[in-house]
C-alpha cells in the first residue's frame, strides 16, 4: 500500500495524544498533557495520569480526525503505544484503540513507543537509510540502536547501565529545587553557565571500563558527583552557582552521548545518526550532536522540539512503516507490555 493513512494513539505516561500521518506527511497532531497535575507530587502519579487519559482519549482522537478532515472510515490502520510505559496508562490507550479498530473494522498495531521516538524523524528527513545508527534519549532510556532494516530488524548496540540521561537531569533538578519535570529547567539555566566550572566524571569513556563498554552509558556517577559538590558548597555556606552546575552537567551528558554515538557510527559504517526521545529536546545535546556530526561527516537527524516529547505522530509514523513493510497487524486481543524490549517493534 503506498502512502497509508494511519491514526496514531499515545498514552504511555502523562500525555494523551492522537495524530494522523499519510505516508510521510503529518495531517494532524493533538496532545493533551496532565503534567501540571503531577508537578506538586514531584513525579508522575500513575492513577492521576490514567484518569486523565480516560478523559482526554475521545476528545483527542476526535480532534485529530477533524483536523485532518477525516472520519475513522478514512484511515487504513490504527497504531497505539503498547509499551513500554505505565501499565494503567497503556491500558486506557490500548483499550480505546481496540474499541475503535473493532467498531470501524480496521487493522490495529500495538507499537513500541520508544521506537516511535526515532520513527518520527521520517516526517522531516524522509525514510531511514538501511543499516543506520539511532540514539534514543528519553526519561527512561539512553540507548544506541543499530537499525538494520526499519521496522523489521533493530538491535541494541549499547544502553545505560544505571540512570537514563533524562532521569539523571530530573534527579539533579530535584536537588536544585526545580519542579518536575526538571530537565527543561536545567536546559534553561545551562544556557547561561560555564560548562567547565565543575569537574564531573566521564563515566565509561576512559580506561578499562571505557574499553569494556564502548557503547554503554553510565550517568549515576555524574549525578552523584554533582550532588556531592552542591552539598559541599551548601555545607560551607557558599551560594550555589546554579547556572554553572547545570551547564557542567549538561555538557558532560551531551559530550558523552555524542562521542559514543559518533564512535558507533564509525564502527557500523553509518553516515546517518537518527536521534529521538524526550531528552532530545535538550538544547545542549542538540548542539553537541550537530557539532560532532559536522566534524565526523555524519548526518544527524533530530526531530523538531514539538516532536521530541511524547506525541501521536511518532506512533502513527511507526504504524505507517509497519503497514508499508507488510507486517501483520497485532492480534485483536494483544496485551500491553510495560517493559517492552527495544528489539520488539510491534506486538
Ligand atoms: O520521552 P519522554 O517524553 O518520556 C519517556 O518516554 O521517558 O522523556 C521525558 C524526559 C524527562 O526526563 C524530561 O526531563 C526530559 O525528557 N526533557 C528534557 C528536556 N525536555 C524534556 N531534558 C533536558 N532538557 C530538555 N529541554
Ligand atoms: Zn517518550
Mean pLDDT: 95
The end-to-end distance, rounded to whole angstroms, is: 21 Å
CATH topology of the largest domain: Nucleotidyltransferase, domain 5
User: What is the tally of beta strands?
Assistant: 10
Report the biggest beta sheet as strand number plus sense, adding barrel if it closes.
5 strands, mixed
CATH superfamily of the largest domain: ATPase, nucleotide binding domain
Question: Which class of secondary structure composition applies to the elements?
Answer: alpha/beta
Percent of residues in beta strands: 15-25%
Q: What strand order characterises the main sheet?
A: 3-2-1-4-5
Protein name: tRNA N6-adenosine threonylcarbamoyltransferase
Cofactor: Fe(2+)
Catalytic activity: L-threonylcarbamoyladenylate + adenosine(37) in tRNA = N(6)-L-threonylcarbamoyladenosine(37) in tRNA + AMP + H(+)
Keywords: Acyltransferase, Cytoplasm, Hydrolase, Iron, Metal-binding, Protease, Transferase, tRNA processing
Describe the 3D structure:
- The protein is an alpha/beta fold.
- It has 2 domains: 5-120 and 309-325, ATPase, nucleotide binding domain (Nucleotidyltransferase, domain 5); 129-307, 2-Layer Sandwich (Nucleotidyltransferase, domain 5), CATH 3.30.420.40.
- The chain is built from 12 helices and 10 strands.
- The strands form 2 sheets. Strands 3-2-1-4-5 form a 5-stranded mixed β-sheet, with helices on both faces. A 5-stranded mixed β-sheet has the order 8-7-6-9-10, with helices on both faces.
- The protein binds 5'-O-[(R)-(carboxyoxy)(hydroxy)phosphoryl]adenosine and zinc ion (ZN).
- Zinc ion (ZN) binds at residues 113, 117, 138, 278, 310.
- It catalyses: L-threonylcarbamoyladenylate + adenosine(37) in tRNA = N(6)-L-threonylcarbamoyladenosine(37) in tRNA + AMP + H(+).
- InterPro entries: ATPase_NBD (IPR043129), Gcp-like_dom (IPR000905), KAE1/TsaD (IPR017861), TsaD (IPR022450).
- It is an enzyme of class 2 (transferase).
- Keywords: Acyltransferase, Cytoplasm, Hydrolase, Iron, Metal-binding, Protease, Transferase, tRNA processing.
Amino acid at each position: 500500500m503506498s502512502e497509508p493513512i494511519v491514526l496514531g494513539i499515545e498514552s504511555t505516561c502523562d500525555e494523551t495524544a492522537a495524530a494522523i500521518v499519510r505516508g510521510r506527511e503529518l495531517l494532524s497532531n493533538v496532545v493533551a498533557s496532565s503534567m501540571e497535575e503531577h508537578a506538586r507530587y514531584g513525579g508522575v502519579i500513575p492513577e492521576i495520569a490514567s484518569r486523565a487519559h480516560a478523559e482526554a482519549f475521545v476528545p483527542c482522537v476526535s480532534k485529530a480526525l477533524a483536523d485532518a478532515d477525516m472520519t475513522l472510515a478514512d484511515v487504513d490502520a490504527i497504531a497505539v503505544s503498547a509499551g513500554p510505559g505505565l501499565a494503567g496508562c497503556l491500558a486506557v490507550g490500548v483499550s480505546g484503540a481496540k474499541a475503535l479498530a473493532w467498531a470501524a473494522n480496521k487493522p490495529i498495531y500495538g507499537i513500541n513507543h520508544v521506537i516511535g521516538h526515532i520513527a518520527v524523524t521520517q516526517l522531516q528527513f524522509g525514510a531511514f537509510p538501511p543499516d543506520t545508527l539511532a540514539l534514543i534519549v528519553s526519561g527512561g532510556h539512553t540507548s544506541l540502536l543499530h537499525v538494520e532494516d526499519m521496522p523489521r530488524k533493530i538491535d541494541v548496540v549499547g544502553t545505560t547501565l544505571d540512570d537514563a540521561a533524562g532521569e539523571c537531569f530530573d534527579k539533579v533538578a530535584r536537588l536544585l529545587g526545580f519542579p518536575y519535570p526538571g530537565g527543561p529547567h536545567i536546559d534553561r539555566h545551562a544556557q547561561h553557565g560555564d560548562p567547565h566550572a565543575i569537574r564531573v566524571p566521564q563515566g565509561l569513556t576512559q580506561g578499562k571500563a571505557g574499553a569494556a563498554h564502548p557503547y554503554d552509558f553510565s550517568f549515576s556517577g555524574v549525578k552523584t558527583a554533582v550532588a556531592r559538590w552542591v552539598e559541599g558548597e551548601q555545607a560551607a555556606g557558599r551560594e550555589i552557582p546554579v547556572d554553572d552546575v547545570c551547564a557542567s552537567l549538561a555538557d558532560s551528558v551531551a559530550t558523552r552521548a555524542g562521542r559514543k554515538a559518533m564512535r558507533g557510527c564509525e564502527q557500523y559504517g553509518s553516515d546517518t545518526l537518527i536521534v529521538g526521545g524526550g531528552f532530545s529536546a535538550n538544547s545542549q545535546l542538540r548542539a553537541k550532536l550537530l557539532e560532532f556530526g559536522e566534524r565526523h561527516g555524519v548526518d544527524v537527524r533530530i526531530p523538531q522540539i514539538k516532536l521530541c516529547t511524547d506525541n501521536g505522530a511518532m506512533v502513527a509514523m511507526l504504524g505507517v512503516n509497519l503497514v508499508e513493510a507488510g507486517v501483520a497487524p497485532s492480534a485483536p486481543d494483544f496485551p500491553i507490555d510495560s517493559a517492552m524490549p527495544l528489539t520488539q517493534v510491534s506486538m
